[in-house]
């Protein structure tokens, strides 16, 4: 799945080697991260010498060791790795003393402030424009995910309170990512049912907020993102800004996905919108993402740990493989990323080798093997 041009804020540098941290974590993460590794190995002739480091994190790690994110994992990522792939985590829905989500902690530890989630449909006819082609750009470090919660007893019973943090700094830098992405991927207006609703807008950023209710927090997010092109001295003059309240944005996402290009949102809204958008393209099992900062990038499939199918060998590896491609592209390795994306699209379009979530009956290993074969064929 492409971002149309080289990914925003590429971390590309001349490297003598490429060290990738592998963090399968929980559930199906252990089944799909090996598939992502295989995809990177399949394009290794276009990469520096590869090294993979297996790292621990997750709920299972917590139950065994008392910590969900070992300090050794953080140290290895900071000191030894150029990038990483994270699988999925089985965070409990109840409060557990001493436990905190390792993926949320990693985003903060490594300052991976941008979660970039492309959602693009694949047509059986390559000449047919996709009905859905958008990117959700999710602020990754604050909002309610700062996890500042408390439970207090009152005369009327218990009260649960959470502090939501929105800062001008975080909102501005995620806004810059969104505008850079929109500028890098002009979208041509189509015709008929695939036509862009805003037919005269070839580069579009839609700010998602609820500032009609949350006028202070969402108001600051909205104003900070709107200020980005003003401060850019004309760099983004060709990018148009629209706004949508988050509830109406979800509604219109299902009704008119073609109106969106780049959607930028605070942490919680971005999480919800990108999961909802997955329904437009068949499954969470095909949606990739990268967690990106100025100095590090970590690929992560959008799906969860799926405990109901974990260990059955039927998990969809596509999101993980696509996340590996996104990660490589962000590092500046566009050609091998393109080969991975083509192999995935050539697998999905015919609809013959699919996992159960897409209506097929193929196993994780069968889909992975098929994609690897298509990658290898491009080098022959």
From TrEMBL:
The keyword Secreted does not apply. GO terms for molecular function: homoisocitrate dehydrogenase activity; isocitrate dehydrogenase (NAD+) activity; magnesium ion binding; NAD binding. Residues 19-371 form the Isopropylmalate dehydrogenase-like domain. GO terms for cellular component: mitochondrion. The keyword Magnesium applies. One of its GO terms (biological process) is lysine biosynthetic process. Signal peptide: none annotated. It comes from the Eukaryota. Gene3D superfamilies: Isopropylmalate Dehydrogenase. Pfam families: Iso_dh. Keywords: Magnesium. InterPro entries: IsoCit/isopropylmalate_DH_CS, IsoPropMal-DH-like_dom. Belongs to the isocitrate and isopropylmalate dehydrogenases family. PANTHER family: DECARBOXYLATING DEHYDROGENASES-ISOCITRATE, ISOPROPYLMALATE, TARTRATE, HOMOISOCITRATE DEHYDROGENASE, MITOCHONDRIAL. This is Iso-dh domain-containing protein. It comes from Mycena indigotica. The lineage of its organism: Eukaryota, Fungi, Dikarya, Basidiomycota, Agaricomycotina.
